[in-house]
Amino acid sequence: MKSRYFRSMMLGLTLTLFLLLTGCWSSLEINSRAFVNIMLVDTTDNGETQLTLGFQLPNRMIPGQSGGSSQTSGEPYAFISKNGITLSDAYRKIQSDLSRKIAFGQAHIIVIGKGLAKQGIDPVLEFVQRQPAFHINANLFVTQSKVLEIINAPTLFERFVSSILLSYIDEEVTLNTTVRDFLVAQYKLGDALLPELVFKNDPGLKNEKDKTWMGSGGAIIFRNGKMVSPTMDSDEMRAALWILSQIKTSVVSIESPTDGKIISFFLEKMKTKTKPRLEDQSAAFTIKSNAEAYVLSSESKIDLSNEENIELLQKELENEVKSRIQKAVGKTRQAKADVFRLGEKFDWKYPATWKRLQPSWRKLYANELPIDVVVEIELLRTGGAFQSIKDKSKF
């Protein structure tokens, strides 16, 4: 009896394993799909929505091969753009011109143009939510130029523009803001901070005629889902990275307190915590940042073997970082946009008080909210020289 039961169990397990090995998880073949890896959204001059999808071209992925033998040329990607009354209308027009079914499973980048950013990006979030294959951890970027400028960006070190943008995030060059972050923010005030892309003509592109150089800029503030002024410059954007704990290392330069010459420091092990507290029956916050540092380069005559000089430099470095963080916070207060989601942190700890403060939170955040910034940096290493090499060469 036990032997028969064991054989039946093994037979059932074997049949289950065979079902898992079929490999058929969808009725749509891969060869019938067009894979999107970047989505560009903007508005036209006449108020329509402009949708541009960037596709990988598998038949051009392997240089010199297409269909196994014939030669091929051209870029391994293509952009297709259509205008419509709505985003879905533009999407339908793109699909109607393709021989393959559009697939969003590999779409990891969404770039928003200035026109749509001013109107609000709710239509983009709505569209993404209704596409089951679209990852909500797709990264958002915004540009104050026309979004189609990105098509002319040269891909010198990467095969796809999307790879360049993902590298900006991986290398901690710019903010990491996803669709998910924006959706979570919508449950409160809809405020967020998006990384900015800038485009400019670069005469240094010798072999890339008619190309526009693309780079990371500052950051764009969104209030209630819409782009507002002012914007953050690059230094303020990097300070925002500090506040959001999206950066682990950085290089900061200050003027020497002795002779005004530049000293650069490499900062590592950077950590930031934002703590809410009650103060006079209202909200208050402390933003505390810690880091370790060592001297990267020095043009100053200051003697780095002197302990008092080390403490002096450490204090100057802390003040510089503190000033940058305060400027970044100040920009968001000017915009009346709680992009660092302080209100959400306060709600978690003091829900009853938050319920009372929430109706007037924007006004409180912009004008009255106490936000203390504390920076503690430990200068551990001065490098192999205690004085500038330039200064030593004079002797």
Automatic annotation (TrEMBL):
It comes from Paenibacillus segetis. Residues 218-383 form the Spore germination GerAC-like C-terminal domain. Keywords: Germination, Lipoprotein, Membrane, Palmitate, Signal. It is a lipid-anchor. This is Spore germination protein KC. Belongs to the GerABKC lipoprotein family. It is found in: Membrane. Signal peptide: none annotated. Its main location: membrane. InterPro entries: GerAC_N (IPR057336), Spore_GerAC-like (IPR008844), Spore_GerAC-like_C (IPR046953), Spore_GerAC_C_sf (IPR038501). PROSITE patterns: PROKAR_LIPOPROTEIN (PS51257). Residues 28-197 form the Spore germination protein N-terminal domain. Pfam families: Spore_GerAC, Spore_GerAC_N.
